[in-house]
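We modelled the chain as a single entity of 150 amino acids. Its sequence is:
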Amino acid sequence: MSGIILEINLASELGQITTAQEKANALPGLGLLGDRKCKSKIIIDSVYKRQITFVEIEQIRRFNEFYGVEMKPSETRRNVVTEGINLNELVGHEFQVGDVRMRGTELCEPCKYLQDLTNLPVVEGYLNRGGLCAEILSQGYINVGDTIAS
């Protein structure tokens, strides 16, 4: 099973609009350098499960078609937009993104905060389709166009 990275989006602060990047520095145990979710190891008691988040472009298209809206991939507030891979199947498994090793930790379910921010029915529309949260296991850069392989 493999897919590709279509977009990388980062926001340095909570609530800030995400901005597209061509590449991002993945830091093991922390997150993507410059992203709001990149946490200091000092403040983390256990493994932080949301170091990086993914969403499938196929699910965004399905949502838009079903609800008759035009939600942009960046509006999902996920770091990485993928194509061609079923992210739900990566929960509990290690996988490779370019040269970086990761482990899927849990589904990235939509929240009321995102629903309030977008004024779209994301809690219902993305239930069990909201993407993947992952832990970064090795350091390196991820790039738009990189392959994702399990």
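As a brief sanity check on the tokenised model: The chain has one domain: 2-11+23-149. Residues 2-11+23-149 form a domain with the M1 Pyruvate Kinase; Domain 3 fold (CATH 2.40.33.20).
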